[in-house]
Specification:
This protein is an alpha+beta fold and 189 residues long. It contains five helices and eight strands, in the order ββαββαααββαββ. The strands form four sheets. It has a two-stranded antiparallel ribbon with strand order 1-2. Strand 5 and strand 6 form a beta hairpin. The longest helix has 34 residues. The radius of gyration is 27 Å and the shape is flat. The N and C termini lie far apart (60 Å). The model has no long low-confidence stretch (mean pLDDT 87).
Length: 189
């Protein structure tokens, strides 16, 4: 580089120019980090007030006038029926996906909602008036769609039908790998 020129700063390939460029980069990094911290602090304050700091889930809409989340009149009824349908323990996640698709609730791309997304919807406490933000649960100002009783029944069913997670076979054991065989050099377990 021969030179960089800005309204308030210029760079030349000299020791002083390189030093000034390094200072400018440091200031810009400080500005970006400070802005990120202020944004996170604002989002935490919003969550503490009970306002969900994100896009509304299926069955709700973001009201831009009041900057709040309100119940979607038609979709909320369909989502409530999906929860009730699954709480009867007679349907699969694919059945819920088909039910939502038949009632006009599709993904953003216009396709059926995938069963992983259905599982996420059924596990979302937002529909009971609570919401999860940064791994903490907050009480929201939004109106709940379903009761806590139905939500708990759905969670029991999801847990029963979930995959059993086995511990890894290769977990480290106490004293494993500390001793070697004097003859062959292999580890003794």
């Amino acid at each position: 580089l021969q030179a960089l020129k800005f309204p308030t700063f210029w760079f030349e390939p000299t020791p002083q120019g390189k030093f000034m460029l390094n200072i400018a980069f440091g200031q810009s990094k400080y500005y970006v980090d400070s802005l990120a911290e202020n944004t996170k602090r604002g989002q935490r304050q919003k969550a503490k007030r009970g306002e969900y700091p994100g896009l509304a889930p299926v069955g709700y809409i973001n009201d831009v006038r009041t900057k709040s989340i309100v119940v979607h009149k038609k979709r909320s009824v369909i989502v409530r029926k999906a929860f009730e349908f699954y709480a009867k323990n007679e349907s699969r996640l694919e059945d819920i996906s088909n039910f939502l698709a038949q009632n006009g609730i599709l993904s953003k791309t216009g396709k059926r909602i995938h069963k992983d997304r259905i599982s996420f919807i059924l596990q979302n406490p937002f529909y009971t008036g609570l919401f999860r933000y940064t791994k903490e649960i907050y009480e929201g100002k939004h109106r709940p769609i379903i009761s806590k009783k139905i939500f708990d029944e759905v969670q029991k069913i999801l847990k029963q039908r979930g995959k059993i997670r086995h511990a890894d076979k290769n977990q480290p054991q106490a004293f494993c790998g500390l001793l070697r065989c004097g003859t062959c050099g292999m580890m003794i377990t």
